Structure formats: C-alpha cells, structure tokens
Amino acid sequence: MDSFSSPPPHSGASSQFSTNDIMDQVKTQLEQAYAEQFLETVRDKCFDKCITKPGSSLSGSEGSCISRCVDRYIEATGIISKALFSQR
Amino acid sequence: MDPSSLQSPELQNFLNQQKERAMINEMVGKLTSACWDKCITSTPGSKFSSSESNCLSNCAQRYMEMSLMIVKRFQSMQ
C-alpha cells in the first residue's frame, strides 16, 4: 500500500493521521466489537432461557423473561469481574 | 499516514494496554457464560437469589484456582 509510504494524494493536511487519531479509531472499533460480542452472547443465553417453545409470536411472559434475563446477565458479568479482580 | 507515528512509544503503550484489556474482557466473558450455565438453572428472576450470586462468584474463583492446579500438575510431569 503506497498510501503508507507516500503522502496522501488529496485533501492535504487533514488526511494526515496523528497518533491520537489512530488511538481514537482503535478504541472506537474495539468498543463496538466488544458491544457486538456481548450482545450476541446475551441473545444466545436469553433465547435458551426464555424461548423454550417458540410460538407464533413472542408472548408477554417471554418478553418479560427476556428483559429480566438481559438485566441478570449484565449483573452476572459484574459479579464475575468482581470475583476475579477484587477478591481476598 | 506518517509511518513514524506507528513506532511512537505512546502508541505502542496504548496498544499493549488494549491487548491486556482484550484479554481481561475475554476472560470475564468466557467465565460469565460458563458460570451462568452452571449457576442460573431456573428462569431468570427480577433479582438473583443469594445462592445464585454466591454460585457465580464461587464459580469464577474456583476456575482460577483450578487453572493454577492444572498448571502445577503439568509442571510436575516434566
């Protein structure tokens, strides 16, 4: 990739990346990846717990199970990190 | 992009920090998943029972303890 070795062809100074820009980019993309991964896990776990017999639509009780499940999974994540990093 | 900025100690330091964060994140995620399966056996309620939350934190701590035991076990085989 010659954009790495030669100056950017257009738009001059504004397309020059600073170290800070790179760090911001990496941070944002990591946050996004972490969030997506977490969402996927919660989806799988709560599907297992709450949608035991899929019907023709989500029932009210399935809906409330899902919201409790999401809340509990987030809480469980907190309990686990606390157990790992603030023990003894 | 200025190639010298890729070598900056500031950036290397930042990347190392992020690597560590990623490892911690993965560990917490993996353990939460495994311990959730072991400890939360009924439909999730509006609050964890004390046995559920104790089980979760015991589960995480026993996992760490076990990891150490396994490492020692392997070391003793050499």
UniProtKB/TrEMBL annotation, chain A:
<feature type="compositionally biased region" description="Pro residues">
    <location>
        <begin position="1"/>
        <end position="10"/>
    </location>
</feature>
<dbReference type="InterPro" id="IPR035427">
    <property type="entry name" value="Tim10-like_dom_sf"/>
</dbReference>
<keyword id="KW-0653">Protein transport</keyword>
<keyword id="KW-0811">Translocation</keyword>
<dbReference type="GO" id="GO:0015031">
    <property type="term" value="P:protein transport"/>
</dbReference>
<keyword id="KW-0999">Mitochondrion inner membrane</keyword>
<feature type="region of interest" description="Disordered">
    <location>
        <begin position="1"/>
        <end position="21"/>
    </location>
</feature>
<protein>
    <recommendedName>
        <fullName>Mitochondrial import inner membrane translocase subunit</fullName>
    </recommendedName>
</protein>
<comment type="function">
    <text>Mitochondrial intermembrane chaperone that participates in the import and insertion of some multi-pass transmembrane proteins into the mitochondrial inner membrane. Also required for the transfer of beta-barrel precursors from the TOM complex to the sorting and assembly machinery (SAM complex) of the outer membrane. Acts as a chaperone-like protein that protects the hydrophobic precursors from aggregation and guide them through the mitochondrial intermembrane space.</text>
</comment>
<keyword id="KW-0813">Transport</keyword>
<dbReference type="GO" id="GO:0045039">
    <property type="term" value="P:protein insertion into mitochondrial inner membrane"/>
</dbReference>
<keyword id="KW-0479">Metal-binding</keyword>
<keyword id="KW-0472">Membrane</keyword>
<dbReference type="GO" id="GO:0042719">
    <property type="term" value="C:mitochondrial intermembrane space chaperone complex"/>
</dbReference>
<feature type="compositionally biased region" description="Polar residues">
    <location>
        <begin position="12"/>
        <end position="21"/>
    </location>
</feature>
<dbReference type="GO" id="GO:0046872">
    <property type="term" value="F:metal ion binding"/>
</dbReference>
<comment type="similarity">
    <text>Belongs to the small Tim family.</text>
</comment>
<dbReference type="Pfam" id="PF02953">
    <property type="entry name" value="zf-Tim10_DDP"/>
</dbReference>
<dbReference type="InterPro" id="IPR004217">
    <property type="entry name" value="Tim10-like"/>
</dbReference>
<comment type="subunit">
    <text>Heterohexamer; composed of 3 copies of TIM8 and 3 copies of TIM13, named soluble 70 kDa complex. Associates with the TIM22 complex, whose core is composed of TIM22.</text>
</comment>
<keyword id="KW-0862">Zinc</keyword>
<keyword id="KW-0143">Chaperone</keyword>
TrEMBL record, chain B:
<keyword id="KW-0472">Membrane</keyword>
<dbReference type="GO" id="GO:0015031">
    <property type="term" value="P:protein transport"/>
</dbReference>
<dbReference type="GO" id="GO:0005743">
    <property type="term" value="C:mitochondrial inner membrane"/>
</dbReference>
<protein>
    <recommendedName>
        <fullName>Mitochondrial import inner membrane translocase subunit</fullName>
    </recommendedName>
</protein>
<keyword id="KW-1015">Disulfide bond</keyword>
<keyword id="KW-0653">Protein transport</keyword>
<comment type="function">
    <text>Mitochondrial intermembrane chaperone that participates in the import and insertion of some multi-pass transmembrane proteins into the mitochondrial inner membrane. Also required for the transfer of beta-barrel precursors from the TOM complex to the sorting and assembly machinery (SAM complex) of the outer membrane. Acts as a chaperone-like protein that protects the hydrophobic precursors from aggregation and guide them through the mitochondrial intermembrane space.</text>
</comment>
<comment type="subunit">
    <text>Heterohexamer.</text>
</comment>
<keyword id="KW-0143">Chaperone</keyword>
<feature type="domain" description="Tim10-like">
    <location>
        <begin position="13"/>
        <end position="76"/>
    </location>
</feature>
<comment type="similarity">
    <text>Belongs to the small Tim family.</text>
</comment>
<dbReference type="Pfam" id="PF02953">
    <property type="entry name" value="zf-Tim10_DDP"/>
</dbReference>
<keyword id="KW-0999">Mitochondrion inner membrane</keyword>
<dbReference type="InterPro" id="IPR035427">
    <property type="entry name" value="Tim10-like_dom_sf"/>
</dbReference>
<keyword id="KW-0811">Translocation</keyword>
<keyword id="KW-0813">Transport</keyword>
<keyword id="KW-0496">Mitochondrion</keyword>
<dbReference type="InterPro" id="IPR004217">
    <property type="entry name" value="Tim10-like"/>
</dbReference>
